[in-house]
Amino acid sequence: MNFHTRKWVKPEDLNPNGTLFGGSLLRWIDEEAAIYAIVQLGNQKVVTKFISEINFVSSARQGDIIELGITATEFGRSSITLTCEVRNKITRKSILTVDKLVFVNLGADGLPAPHGKTEITYIKDQFKDDDALAD
Fold this sequence. Notes:
6-stranded antiparallel beta sheet, 23% helix, elongated, hydrolase
């Protein structure tokens, strides 16, 4: 799993206990997962369909730097299933895990549409064709 997105836990992200508010963290996860799905499916029109059990393992406090890791685990006809882990950037201690996040690819009509993808696309592979054109 690659951890690309990092967040700095600030005072406005805290709950009354002085730890990271779960709702803020879930908002960050949903946004990051949607971006991941958009990049993988090559379509800006995706929607969150399902999020499985969310396991809060430990907490984060003000000043902590956390990182979100997301990877695709399954490609359906019009969907993509992801998994997520959030951890402390410095200590690598796990903060949260989500086994399944399912996003649906939408067509121009707003209805589920086949995406034709079957495996993870890596950035380095997306530009191979562009390199060949430059030669």
